[in-house]
Amino acid sequence: MKIIYKIARTELRNLFYSPIAWFLMIVFLIQCALAYTSLLVQASNTQEIGGYGFHVSNQLTVRIFGGSDGLFSSVMEKLYLYIPLLTMGLISREFNGGTIKLLYSSPVNVQKIIFGKYLAMMIYSLVLVCIAGIFLVSGMFHIDHADYGMLLSSALGFYLLLCAYSAIGLFMSCLSTYQVVAAVSTFVMIGILSYIGKLWQSIDFVRDLTYFLSLSGRTGNMLFGLITTKDVLYFLIIICMFLALSIFKLKGDRESRPALVKTGRYVLVVVSALLLGYLSSRPALIGYADVTAGQSRTITPTTQKIISELGKEPLEVTVYNNVAGQFATFGLPEGRNEDLARWESYMRFKPDIKFNYVNYYDSSLDAPYLYRFPPGRTAKDQAEANMKNWKMKLSAVKSPEEIRKIIDLRPELNRYVMQLKYKDRTTLLRIFDDDEVFPREPEVGAALKRLLNAKLPKVAFLTGDLERSIDKIGDRNYKALTTLVSFRYALINQGFDLETISLTNQDIPADVSTLVIADPRTSLSAEALSKIQAYIDKGGNLLIAGEPGKQAILNPLLQGLGVRLMDGTIVQESKDFSPDLALPFITSAAAGFTKYMMRRFKDSVPVSMPGATGLVYTDTGAFEIKPLLMTDAKYSWIRKDRVVADSAEILFSAANGDIRTSVPTALSLTRKINGKEQRIVVTGDADFMSHVELGRQNTQVANFIFSSGLFSWLSYGEYPIDASRPDANDKHLKVNANQVEAYKIITVWVLPALLLVFATILLIRRKRK
Q1: Rounded CA separation 358/595 (Å)
Q2: Where do the H-state alpha helices sit in 49-147?
Q3: Per residue in 561-591, pLDDT tens?
Q4: C-alpha–C-alpha distance, residues 122 and 166, integer Å
Q5: Which residues pair with 315 in a beta bridge?
């Protein structure tokens, strides 16, 4: 070891007595300072102006250090430019200077030469980490409750990447006596290792090997605070592989052995590395350490519990991919490793998940305009054109007739879909038309609960009296909230079973957990009222949504609950909206329906209700009644006359019977009956859950969360599955914009200047000696 230390010390002396090492340190310091301070300025400005949305900021540590625009990400993008300039002379300099002969003739073996020089690079890499550490330590002081674990994990990933680049550069320096050639070769090798993960992806076994070799994204988990044995071992294997190649290269120069023997050594090293890498990346052999403050890189305990209930029985996931559809590329062989990465957080707790991929072509039944087939082109024509573009054969995919013998995906609009199979049960897991596309924990958890034969809440919507439809996408209908397969938050994707019933010829099924009566336009028959009353008397949960003008239809039913729809329509003053658009505020009672609402709706948030009426209730003692939405008497009133939205300005008129008072537009009713709590919701508007209101720009978030919260409350909070996390604590900066500017001057100008002065003095003194 002493000889290795001496070689390392000599190499470090040569390194720090050359301008390039100091120059790179100064450039690296400036780069880190600019990246960190620019992010700090953005965060401080956002904080000072009050932030955006419901909260100012969240997870500042991730945003400033680990995000796609964070400090480490921006630095690592250019890291490959630094190391080749340092490693290009490690061995080639010895050949050019003739000192390699002295090393060979000394009692120093090749291994010690390689290890000594690599140790020097490890120490220099540690110096670069220390420079980045200046900003890590600063972040701990600048961010209130900074996530220390994530910072240390990011530093580890950064250091391992530096060490891997150094090992690659060392080997390339062994291949040429020209330093420039060694530097260029290092650039090329790093580029190959970064790109190789995209090669030969159509062959399963080869895809696994090339994906393992790929440098791209290897530090991604560590930058966000998740350390895995797969990633750590990857860097160690790459380092050992290139060090072994370097040793065999130098040994080969001294030995007169057949070329086949020398080549065999290299092949043995590479094959051994690939084998170890392949084994270490098997799901059952991967270890995980989530070092973040709130375990944010681990699925929530709720989802973990659901997965644990699956036991040791395997879970099979079959992906059905329509190659003529808009999401076709997700199911291609090139995207399968990325697809498996999405499941990694679940495979951590159930490594025996098996994956199958079935490609087919069929008409894309929900394709938006941009993805529709050109006129005259069939699904087969489109699939053939796509497959030709992807250099694949159409014979490799199933035709519509073949796929329908396996599964009929027309109810799924022939979209990309995943079928989960557990024991003899199957269910579907969908992707969605939003920015995230793929399912999150609530959707995955709901699908797994279906496989476990859990008793899912069944919501029945009353039909037969022109109620709102769950099968139509029109502005006033409920398909978006209920059965739209492409909408993530539709009840069907959140663990609810949905059906429609007509009380004219059906009874209310015994397994219905919630009955919905949404704006019937004709009077309910005596038979229907009798069946509904019997359902209420048994303790069934209920949601009744009324509308102005429908008082005579629903009040006979509501009378037994102690509730009544008021006469008239709510009018609200507004410069921007129609006067019949009521904007009642969510009360604390409604905010307590879900944890998300409790966190986000602590302050009053409006829900849009076009054409609403107020509710009055009598405390008869049968139910405990609480307002869920309340209007503000300062801006709204009850107008007894008919409201014409496009008429002249509507003014308050007490003479015409207008009443200016705050009124509830949604009520909750609860009571204990038959050993459980019966829950009923009554609203004075049926449009707040409609397709058009869920898409209204100013209130869509509140409308959707309130609507979803109602069904969560009616299902006793079991669904949608709660995979929420507490807010992170690192959401406040301790510094303001002026302090950040002062800090920027110090780190961008003062510290590099001091380092430059120190380096200049050291190099001048060295030259004089």
Answers
A1: 39
A2: 60-61, 71-76, 83-87, 92-97, 99-105, 110-142
A3: 999 999 888 888 877 778 888 899 999 888 8
A4: 8
A5: 353, 422
